[in-house]
Amino acid sequence: MELQKGNGILxxxxxxxxxxxxxIDRSLPNEITKNNLVVVTxxxxxxxxxxxxxxxxxxxxxxxxxxxxxxxxxDDEIILNSAIRASLEAGxxxxxxxxxxxxxxxxxxxxxxxxxxxxxxxEQAPSDLYVxxxxxxxxxxxxxxxxxxxSDLFMDAFxxxxxxxxxxxxxxxxxxxTSAFSGDYLPILTSLQRGALSASISGNxxxxxxxxxxxxxxxxxxxxxxxxxxxxxxxxNNNKASLEVLVG
Length: 248
What we know:
single chain; alpha+beta; 4-stranded antiparallel β-sheet; about 40% helix; elongated
């Protein structure tokens, strides 16, 4: 996000422009957009619409950039609430996705109460863990309304997470979500058989995420090679969102 001669807001990419405009309108004083052209560029490696929290990541980045642009203190709570409020008003989330936003912002492992916007747990993920993410070519998502039929079981998964039994919670989430969406559980099951500590559908899917150690990555990749799609591998991230100021 940068200021140039002119006025208004210019998006150099379409990614999240509705949410970004909401954040900018709420975060920047009117005199800034009246006296400057606010140029916004989104450059993200996160696939959109695959359950990988791309909207939360972009919203956090925009809120962080706005706070820096006006010289405000980079207060974590204010930045998160700004991003969440914009997502709610844009209609891209029901609860505000406080869990997604805090995970994207703080890194590591977080457990939250979305409705109360309460951060229950936050801790570093083991540094030797990797995440293998499979993005199927068929990006059809299941009927989200079916998830409500399993609300009691999702609460069980939530309670497991609150007691730091993260991998059990993730496994249970994978079982429930796949059942609710009438999906194929075999890729998740096979990755567990090949050494994954845990595996599940990511968000509302269709992506599948597996947590593993380095020595099992190759075996898990072979599983997903049998399916049409793209596989990504990343180390667990513990870095908090940060701002980079470019001078020149």
